[in-house]
Specification:
The protein is of the alpha+beta class and about 170 residues long. It is built from seven helices and five strands; from the N terminus they run αβαββββααααα. Strands 4-3-2-1-5 form a five-stranded antiparallel beta sheet.
C-alpha cells in the first residue's frame, strides 16, 4: 500500500510538471554487445567492461539519439531494444520547439561525415543534449569508455584499424 501511494505521488508530480510545461529528462543506455562485453572483455582487453554503450536522451516522451543521423523517435521504439539502464538526469522547462531547434542546429556537427567511434559518437551527442536540457552531462564513465578501452594494449592495437575504417566511412559522405 505504501509503495502504491509513493508511485501514485510520483506519477502525479510528473503529470503536474508536464502540465506546467516541463519534463523529466532521462538517459537510455543500451549495450550494443547484448552482454558479450561483460563476459569477454576481461579476456580480450585485460580489463572488465560492462558494455559498449549507445545512449539516447528522452524528454517529453521522445528519444533523441545519433546513430550517424540525428534521430527522434517515440521513447522506447528504437532499434536498440530495451535500455540496459535508465538514468534520470533532471528536468527541463524548455518547450519542445526550442529543443527541436537545438537539435536542428546540431545537424552540421552531428552527421555521417563527422561520426567517430572513438571521439565524436552518440554519447557525445547525448552529453550535449543533457547539458542543454539540464545543465548537467551524462555519466563520465559512459563518455570516457572509448578512451578507457583504447588505453589497454588491445585497444592500442585496434586504434589504427578503427581509424582506418572511420576514414573509409567518412569518404562515403563528402
Amino acid at each position: 500500500p505504501q509503495k502504491k501511494t509513493r508511485m501514485s505521488q510520483q506519477r502525479a508530480t510528473k503529470e503536474r510538471r508536464e502540465e506546467q510545461g516541463s519534463s523529466v529528462v532521462v538517459l537510455h543506455v543500451y549495450d550494443l554487445t547484448q552482454g558479450w562485453a561483460k563476459q569477454l572483455s576481461q579476456a580480450i582487453l585485460g580489463k572488465r567492461v560492462d558494455g559498449l554503450w549507445h545512449t539516447g536522451v528522452v524528454v517529453y516522451g521522445r528519444e533523441y539519439f545519433w546513430g550517424g543521423e540525428l534521430t527522434v523517435l517515440r521513447a522506447g521504439t528504437t532499434v536498440y531494444g530495451h535500455p540496459h539502464r535508465v538514468i534520470e538526469l533532471g528536468h527541463t522547462f524548455l518547450p519542445i520547439d526550442v529543443i527541436d531547434q537545438f537539435v536542428e542546429d546540431l545537424r552540421p556537427r552531428f552527421n555521417p561525415s563527422t561520426y567517430s567511434l572513438l571521439g565524436h559518437n552518440c554519447n557525445i551527442f547525448s552529453n550535449e543534449m543533457a547539458m542543454f536540457l539540464t545543465g548537467k552531462g551524462i555519466p563520465s564513465d559512459i563518455v570516457g569508455l572509448p578512451e578507457e578501452i583504447m588505453a589497454t594494449p588491445m585497444g592500442a592495437a585496434l586504434r589504427p584499424i578503427i581509424q582506418q575504417l572511420e576514414q573509409q566511412q567518412r569518404a562515403m559522405y563528402p
